[in-house]
Amino acid sequence: MGFDQVINWIWAAAALGTAAFGFVEALKWTPLGIAGIGRVNDVLGAPGKAALSAVYGDRNVHHVLNGTFRKSAADLSALLKNGLRVALTQPEHARALGQYFGQSGEALEQAVVQLRGAASTPALAGADPTPPAPPTIDARAVLGKFELAVDARIDAAIAAASDTYAGTMRIVASIVAVLASVFVAYSLGGEKGGYSYLQAVAVGIAAVPIAPIAKDLVTLLNCASDALRGRVSAK
Asked: Which of 32, 83, 206, 212 sits between 20 and 30 A of 47, alpha carbons compared?
């Protein structure tokens, strides 16, 4: 195979990989579009799911999470963080969330109750004001520590889910590219027509990894070719 044929093969394989990616992207409405969401569900656990259900509705939370993940991972991250912060205002969820995310559930519940008491409606005019109870813990510090822990867990889960999704998309796109390449080889007569099925499979497998770097790869080979030709001419 000559140098020009190698360059043409790279561009053709890249075009096949791009087309396979486009085909797979069109299937985002299928369960393929939520590949990796299980990593997020594992991090949330039962306490996190219960807290989100209290905010977004028990019957809607599943569809909300899946639909937002299909939209973008960043939107899902914001949805989870905001939902857990809202759920934290309810003491019954504060204890469970604190224990699940490695914090003191009792201290977190106490911090929520303390802040809610401080923000309660003041006494009516003319009535003797009731002095607030002295704070027993630094409520804002406790909440801040919890929020940092939750944000770190969610960011890690979103990153893992995104990696799983991208890997799944690449695998499915590679399968599509291989099937398309083999089908074309069969349509053109296969071995009788001079088209090797083994070569078709190799092209399909290489198509997806080559697609994002095709331009850089061709530039690299052209630069190497120019360098070698320069050395030859120097002799």
From this structure: 32
